[in-house]
Amino acid sequence: MAQKGVQLDCGNSRHDEVMKMFCRTDQQLICYLCSVDEHKGHDTVSAAAERAERQRELEGSQQNIQQRIQDREKDVKLLQQQAEAINLSADKAVEDSEKIFTELIRLLEKRSSDVKQQVRSQQKSEVSRVKELQEKLEQEITELKRKDAELKKLSHTEDHTQFLHNYPSLSPLSQSASSIHIHPLSCFDDVTAAVSEVRDKLQDVLREEWTNVSLTGTEVNVLLPQPEPKTRAGFLKYSREITLDPNTAHTMLLLSEGNRKATLMRQHQSYSSHPDRFTNMWQVLSREILTGRCYWEVEVERSGGVSVAVAYKNISRAGGLDEYVFG
Asked: Distance from the CA of 179 to the CA of which of 1, 45, 80, 170 falls in 20 to 30 A?
């Protein structure tokens, strides 16, 4: 606040008078003779009157300062309460998060133990089956070798009478075991594939939902509002890297460059069927969930009807135009 200045010396010391007057024009104390001399025609009042005016201004300034002190003391108290609330909330979030992650880890460990137990049980069963078949085959081989020896001995008999006499006494061959089904060595690869699929799905869920718990870019409102950015440099503080979700892309859209670029093609792409896919309009959603203040930039290589919008994840994928078209 600008304040008035006051000059204390008399404009003309030769009068040697008490300065009981105040010249508002020149903003200085003067004596009575000065008021009718060099300050003639100026706006002059008594020093007492000017003091009363300045006193009112001073009291107003004091009230203003005192009010500001009270307001700032309230702000300090509120900020202190806010800091305490932030600390309590953060401590609770850390404690709850640790419990939840511990539960997740225990669940994963249990699932890992279950898979290991199932694989080992199946391994034991399969190995037992293979050994049982192996023993049967070895017994059959022993019998076949014995029979082969008998036949060989008989075939070398020179006496025709003896040969014909011994031939009917040969024991007939036992029924051969049925054909053996040999499992491929990769019989447990389907387990690895299933576990890998679960891992990929879990990674997708964490990637899509993590923005709900991520604190990156989060602003804590402490009664001092942050000004909105005015320049690109200011906006970049809130920038987000956007990747596109192939499960939502219309089949005429080709995603490339790590799912950060979409190109309209002349032919349908070989996407798998998915309930989240847009079927009537060339649209695609991002993987990221946008919360709080976000900024992103889009580069358009060609003009012609490119639209960028913010939409809810549960937006309809078909139906009427007003149900699924980006608005």
From this structure: 170
Between the two ends of the chain, the Cα-to-Cα distance in Å is: 50
DSSP 162-212: HHHHHGGGSPPPPPPPPPP-PPPTTTTHHHHHHHHHHHHHHHHHHHHHGGG
pTM over 0.70: no
Rounded distance, CA 319 to CA 76, Å?
A: 54
Amino acid at 77: K
| pLDDT per position as a tens digit, 189-223 | 888 888 888 888 888 777 766 655 555 445 444 44
**Helices within the chain (DSSP H only):** 32-35, 47-155, 160-166, 189-209, 232-236, 321-324
Report the DSSP beta bridge partners of residue 29.
22
For the chain, give the number of residues.
327
Measure the CA dihedral 287/290/291/295, to 10°: 140
Kindly report, residue by residue over 141-160, the tens digit of the pLDDT.
Answer: 898 898 888 888 888 888 88
Distance CA 88, CA 91 (A): 5
